[in-house]
Amino acid sequence: MNSIEKHVDEIRKDFPILSLKDFVYLDNAATSQKPVQVIEKMNLIYKTLNANVHRGIYKIAEDITEEYEQSRKEISSFINASENEIVFTRNTTDSINLVAYSLLQKLKKGDKVVTTFLEHHSNLLPWRKISEIAGLKLELVKVTPEGLIDEEDYEKKVQDAKVVAFTHVSNVAGTIVEAKQLVKKAKESGALVLIDGAQAAPHLKVDVRELGTDFYAFSGHKMLGPTGIGILYGRKDLLEDLEPPFTGGEMVKEVHKEGQSWNDIPWKFEPGTPNYVGSIGLAEAIKYIKKIGIDEIDHYEKKLAAYLLEAVENIKGLRYVGPKKDRAALVAFETKGIHPHDVAAFLDMKGIAVRSGWHCAQPLQEELGFLNGTTRASLYFYNTFSEIDKLKTALEELVKIT
Amino acid sequence: MSYFFYENIMDHYKNPRNKGKLDSYDSEYGDSNPTCGDNVKIYLKVEGNKIEKISFEGSGCALSMASSSILTEMVKGATLDDALNISEKEIMNELGIKELGPNRIKCVALPVKVLKMAILSFKAKQLQNERKPRL
Questions:
Q1: B4, A349: Cβ pair inside 8 Å?
Q2: Are A64 and A53 in contact (CB under 8 A)?
Q3: Which residues on chain A are in Cβ contact (under 8 Å) with B1?
Q4: Domain A4-27+293-401 is in which class?
């Protein structure tokens, strides 16, 4: 395990886009940049090994199938799951929808689904949608003014819940949720649990067994992988028990004039030709992360997080979302009298890329009183302390001229 | 260069013209940009076929607020039909902006759309009144 702090300049050389002039990329919660290893791997597959998987009995088709299934193994070991518990999807949103629509067939009118105010829209709307379809009762757990899940309210609400869904790390407040404890409490009331890991899996050690969760969803593109590939971890017995909500090719064993039999898990949840090049690209990204070490990434990012918060909290008229400590390496803030889009446009002029607006978490920002949205700077392990200094200098200048 | 340094924009943003609600008006319309939360509402007082008075309320980025402000100055006294034909480009010219990316053009387009809807809803009301049987 190498210290990132010492080697960050070398690491950055693996990311071609980071060498662009005047490009300080602080929008990693939206998507991460890709190392040359991932880009080249996908290039190589398209150039030398492209054939549809699980079908042909010629050499290339067999080789690509093996490579594809090997990628599932790489990803499963990253979160301590079994291979057949890894379902390939398009992204986190797709993973959550897949669970929601699979569970729809098990839930009855009046059953309670619980999610929280901390969520990205994608961990709220699928549940709202199936609640409307099946007449379920959807409740949202409150957050504290600091952007933490209100534990008392959580305990009360999950008591008679059938499904509980919450985020592992908030994409706006930067809160790192005590996921293991929340799972435990939900399990005590017999609920099924889904964790939205989109902002967690790229940054900290995820062990699905240790967490005890039933489902865990995350995206490839936020962790050095390509777009269009997502992961759903589902506990084996649950995946076996659930009916696939979407059907078609690949996910079926036999189809007759009447009747059919579904494929084994995980394939029965993967209808149609899969994004196998995306899966292989993601596996390559995970190899890269494993090489750096996820704990080392976590360690370095904690330092960045503290430095980032300190940089922004001392700027006049600035108010940030989320807790004071134990934060992920991102901060969303509003600047008194300056609209977030104007802040982002100003920073863009300085070559700094940030996000502004609702960050797909409008209920959270409204609940916490950030009524015009916020500007968000979000980091990854290739970011540096000096990039945070640049952000700080630019923000100080902005506040001065407005 | 960022629009932040266009004096005209910052002037209209910091000292908006015709801001607030008219005491009496013939038409009002409001809308928002869902992605960024800019919102604009326009009030119209019509005399004959001309805009006699116009005002706006709203909140949002400097670009959307400056566009709203300058738009009210541009169409005050104009005929309804002329005002209906105003474009984002004309507002950009008036503000002195040459180019805007696709995401930012929406900030200029919002007040234009709101003005058009305010005029159209006034016209619709007028038509309805004309069609009413006179007893």
A1: yes
A2: yes
A3: 349
A4: alpha beta
